[in-house]
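One thing: could you explain this record?
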Amino acid sequence: MSTRISGYKVANTLEKRGGGERMKKVIGILCVMGLLLGVVGGAVASETDWTMIFKAQAVGGTNSGAVLQAGTKTGAENGKDTGDVRSTFTATTVANVSSYQPSWGDVPPLYTCDKRAPMAGVAGEKQVWDLRVWAMPSFPTTVDGLQLLWYTPASQLVPGTIAGTDMIYTVEVILDPTGQNSGYKWVGKSADLVAGSATNPLGTLTWTEFPKLAAGDAVTGGISIRFTAEAVPEPGSMLALGSGLVGLVGFALRRRR
């Protein structure tokens, strides 16, 4: 009887040890997965300082004017930041794009650098930049048209996620007096946003007819464009990841028993 009990104890002890080893392996796998996820998330872009560039130009790349930098910056506050740069519009034969923020109280309230406070990645969090695109009165009538390009510079890429939450970026036409691109909407996400330059833009809009305005009139005229950065959860991916982790833990517990 004592031999049978002793054998049972030995077998039970070995089974427990085996279960413990399997649990350690599972925990190790989970740690590696966590590290990989952290590396992937961190390699895309800074979550605090990032920039999307908007450039207005004549078709073919000539006669470009103000280049707008819209994004976030460490230490900045929403609204006009002291580091924002106001457009001067000294040239007369250029195409322009600038941030339009009437609440700032300047005349005209047009800026080529509009940086906001860093986003926290909370689901539903949103930042909105209202832009104006137009040509100066002396803009050549012989050009093929006016273009708006947007892209991300290599030094400050737009993050695909912030604090683990997917980011969605939208460029849409709010008001187009020419009627050519009314209702236009572009949506960019994740891998679509990690590259781009003035010669290889993420998106382009073209007008063959366009408003010609002095800088002071652009706040009430011109083409109105809205750029939005929004934190949107991706329940499908998170659910799949969570289910996988739960399955691994459940498998380990079952084998341990």
In short: The mean pLDDT is 79. The chain is about 25% helix and 30% strand.
